[in-house]
User: Fold this.
Amino acid sequence: MSLEKEQLWKQQGDLLTDIMNKWIAPCVTPLTASNEHSVKYKGTGTFVSVDDKIFVLTARHVADEHADDILFHGSDQPVKLPDQYIRAPGSLDSAILPIPAELWQGMEHEAQAIQFEWFAGKFDPFPQEMYFFRGYAGENAQYAFDINQTSATGYCTQINADFTDDTRFFYLLWRPSETEFTSGTSDEARENMKKEKADGFSGSLVWETGLSKAMAENRQWKAEDAKIVGQVVNWDQNNYQLVVRRIEDVNKWLLEEVRGRAEA
Assistant:
């Protein structure tokens, strides 16, 4: 990539990160485990719509931590749905939490669900592509007076070229010392946002933005270029990366689970 094209790529990436942040913000929720004594942040969930049914999709190990409290965008009061997670079998670290229709439709909120059509059929990376995810890091969690004040963080990054992908996972660079704020980040967020630890991003969905492919084809990027290609399942601190499960495994289980229950 020429220096001129690299500079353009960075400029476009800056704008794209802000666009993706605003677009995905209503679709994600922090997942917390709470009792009368404490509230603990465990991970990130995404509202998804499959066959007109709404679910929170997250990692199974987050569900196993009794992260039953969700937060609808536009509300600061968590909703508890205890012991209702449906967990994937075997080694697939995924789980869904069904959202009752009466809750989704009857409660005042601004949350939105990602339609299943946005899920890619499989992870098929384009060279030097940019990837986006939005999640809730525990280091930015705040909860006081029964009000959830945690802030989500959106990131664009790339595949770790020094680490070989395999048939089930791919790996995204996570180097806090190299993190840069976008031009659209407010002064308040720059001052208060911590960006040292990835705890809490488990369950976040990863989007292949399609920016590099659009630039290679000499055309403008459009929203339809972005697709969900994976789910964050682990933070590999030793290799400065996030471990991401390829979306084809998640897709297969999700459809089988939702449609199987509908037929039962």
Remarks:
- The chain has six helices and 16 strands.
- The first helix runs from residue 3 to 24.
